[in-house]
Design goal:
Layout lengths: L6 E2 L5 E5 L8 E5 L4 E5 L2 E2 L5 E2 L6 H12 L5 E4 L9 H9 L3
Parallel strand pairs: 4-7
Antiparallel strand pairs: 1-2, 2-3, 3-4, 5-6
Helix pairs in contact: 1-2
């Protein structure tokens, strides 16, 4: 098992970030040395940033999105849609704050 905040040393120090909402055990992975977030299904970027189509708990999904937005990364990749290639953490914060 992996835990929130755990650093995976065998994978270039990838940080595990627990991001529930889509499902209870959802995690995202931060690659700080590359400035990339592997966001999975915390949200999508198919026709612009939006909530994932399916969320067990949308309010918790929003909290998870805003949680990862506090980390430092420029790029984010998603399970659905195009990557964000610049200012990804800021774009997530702007889109999902007070929504």
């Amino acid at each position: 098992t992996i835990e929130d905040g755990e650093i995976l040393p065998f994978a270039n120090d990838i940080e595990v970030i627990h991001t529930p909402g889509h499902c209870a055990g959802h995690v995202s992975f931060l690659l700080p040395q590359y400035g990339v977030l592997i966001a999975g299904d915390i949200c999508s970027n198919v026709m612009g940033l939006s909530y994932a189509t399916i969320n067990k708990d949308r309010a918790l999904a929003r909290e998870s999105i805003l949680k990862v937005a506090e980390y430092t990364f420029d790029q984010a990749v998603f399970g659905h849609g195009s990557p964000l290639k610049k200012r990804a953490n800021q774009l997530l914060k702007e889109k999902f704050t007070d929504k």
